[in-house]
Amino acid sequence: MRIQVSHETVYRYGQPARGVIQTLRLTPRNHESQYVLDWRIDVSENCQVDQHEDAFGNITHVFNVDGPLSELRILAEGEIDTQDAHGVVRGGIERFPPSLYLRETPLTQADQAIADFAADARKAGGDNVLAVLHQLLDRLHEGIEYDDKSATTSATTAAEAFALKRGVCQDFTHVFISAARSLAIPARYIGGHFFRADGATVQEAAHAWAEAFVPDLGWIAFDAANGLCATDAHVRIAVGLDYLGAAPTRGARYGGGDEALDVTVRVSCPFNPSQSQSQSQS
Predict the structure, then answer these.
(1) pLDDT at 203 over 60
(2) Phi and psi for 57 in degrees, rounded to 5?
(3) What is the DSSP letter of 173?
(4) Do 194 and 268 form a contact (C-beta atoms < 8 A)?
(5) Per CATH, is 85-246 categorized as 3.30.70.1060?
(6) Of 200 and 134, which is predicted with more confidence?
(7) Residue 16: CA count within 13 A, CB half-sphere
(8) I want to staple 76 with a disulfide (CB 3.0 to 4.6 A). Which of 7, 23, 69, 140 is the partner?
(9) Do residues 251 and 269 touch, judged by C-beta distance below 8 A?
(10) What whole-number distance in Å separates Cα of residue 230 and Cα of residue 87?
(11) DSSP class of residue 98?
């Protein structure tokens, strides 16, 4: 599938900010089922944008801007060719052994409720790791309601979202990771984009799903918010232990008073121009 993505982030400051430092994880990489045809990063202010790789192999862009500035715009856009690999992820950069992704973080720490939920999935799946993971996928998709009406925030933990039984794709992903790790299955957070041809599902600005390690198969991508393994509709951008390690933008500012954030994402298929979606977050 040929997918076009336009991801614009706008910061507005109540008072002019004296300076801003930003790290971006907005650029996809090639792997066996994903090829980046074209991609660019544009920042509204005149500054030097340096490209690096972080510890996980994500492409990052770092810049700082001297103020005063009342608004900052960041645009990431491009075109990606994807293939359906039935969730199997091969050919990516792997800096660490799978065991690293057993490491708990504050956002993914399992409480007793998640541990019990995972144990029930293991009973149903038996000794087959892939079957257990599909049990987690199906049960989370059925048991948690997708809700983008501010029931959760970027700081909501897996345990909190699981107790609420509602959340956005980030929450589904954190709960899936937490449950998998409680079963000693390595799992990690993936940030990216998802093309829905029918536009029926309301999504936040960027999408998220998990990858879990299955012996003899490798990393398999599970999108619990949509109840499926990743397909050619998924564009993989960044990997981390949790959301904080794969967040599209992270940074700091000096001054500026109150801050308003607006994110607008457009995901489209140029060969099917009528089947596209626009998402926005304020």
Answers:
(1) no
(2) 90, 5
(3) H
(4) no
(5) no
(6) 134
(7) 6
(8) 7
(9) no
(10) 5
(11) G
Question: 198 falls in which pLDDT band (50, 70, 90)?
Answer: low
**Residue 27 near residue 79, CB atoms below 8 Å:** no
Write down the pLDDT at residue 274: 47
257: confidence class by pLDDT, cuts 50, 70, 90? confident
**DSSP helix/strand/coil, 65:** strand
Tell me if residue 174 falls in helix, strand or coil: helix
CATH topology for 2-81+247-281? Immunoglobulin-like (2.60.40)
Secondary structure element (H or E) that encloses residue 207, with its range:
strand 207-214
Whether pLDDT at 148 is above 60:
yes
Residues in the chain: 282
pLDDT digits (tens, 9 = 90+) for 266-279: 998 877 644 444 44
Each domain of the chain, given as residue ranges in start order, spans 2-81+247-281, 85-246
Classify residue 131 as left (phi > 0), alpha (psi -120 to 50) or beta.
alpha
The amino acid occupying position 152 is: T
DSSP state letters, 245-257 = HH-SEEEEEEE-S
Separation of CA 275 from chain center:
22
> Rounded distance, CA 43 to CA 210, Å?
29
Report H helices in the chain: 112-125, 129-143, 158-164, 169-182, 243-246
- Residue 125, SS3 per DSSP: helix
Q: Return the pLDDT at 151.
A: 80
Q: Are residues 280 and 262 in contact, defined by beta-carbon separation less than 8 angstroms?
A: yes
Integer Cα distance of 135 and 146 in angstroms: 18
